[in-house]
Specification:
alpha/beta; two-stranded antiparallel ribbon; 212 residues; 25% strand; D-amino Acid Aminotransferase, Chain A, domain 2; 4 helices
């Protein structure tokens, strides 16, 4: 969606054009990812538009992501703007952590995280396959404590293009969390369930599919 006013200026437009462009594409990430936890740069703040699918949100992410890639990482995991303590989302996807028998994803209350459709679908399916699902503030310290205790079982991203993307490594400062993704069961099961619905192999009991 973009402005179509017959003028150039800094103000909200009176007219817009909305278009849907379709093209074939594969998954963004064909292999499990290495993620760098960002503690300096900021993607979004309360009162901003971090919750929206807006180009500016991606523009703000590019420099930090480029710096992370120089260090050998695929993406960054953003933290909050004030304390750089609470995890938000990755550059191109929402994020989930399986801690014990609970699936935790950062909550949307601050308006700094995209309310992803795949995120909503993942929460529904995770609940159906037996997980307690929590949306809440989750600090990087809590994640590290769960890893040290041996109860951080999986970490993965969800997104329209990212689909279900496995995270094989998470780095915060000098602490590195590595995961044996070949042994995982939850994220692969979630991905299969969503794909089965998408491709019509399983009944869509939620009404998610919409014929265009």
């Amino acid at each position: 969606m973009f402005s179509t006013d017959e003028m150039i200026g800094v103000r909200p437009s009176d007219k817009y054009k909305f278009m849907i462009l379709l093209s074939p594409t594969g998954p963004y990430y064909n292999t499990p990812m290495r993620i760098y936890v960002e503690e300096h740069f900021v993607r979004a703040v309360p009162g901003g538009v971090g919750y929206a699918k807006a180009a500016g949100n991606y523009g703000a992410a590019m420099y930090a992501t480029a710096q992370a890639k120089k260090k050998g990482y695929d993406q960054v995991l953003w933290t909050d703007a004030f304390e750089h303590k609470y995890v938000q989302e990755c550059g191109t996807m929402n994020v989930f952590f399986i801690i014990g028998n609970t699936a935790i994803t950062p909550d949307l209350s601050k308006g700094t995280i995209l309310a992803g459709v795949t995120r909503d679908s993942a929460m529904q399916v995770l609940n159906e396959i037996g997980f307690k699902v929590e949306e809440k503030e989750l600090s990087i310290d809590d994640i590290i404590d769960a890893h040290k205790a041996g109860i951080l079982y999986e970490a993965f991203g969800t997104g329209t293009a990212a689909t279900i993307s496995l995270i094989k490594e998470l780095r915060y400062k000098d602490y590195v969390m590595k995961f044996d993704v070949d042994r995982w069961q939850t994220a692969p099961k979630l991905a299969k369930r969503l794909n089965d619905i998408r491709y019509g192999h399983t009944a869509d009991v939620h009404g998610w599919m919409y014929k265009v």
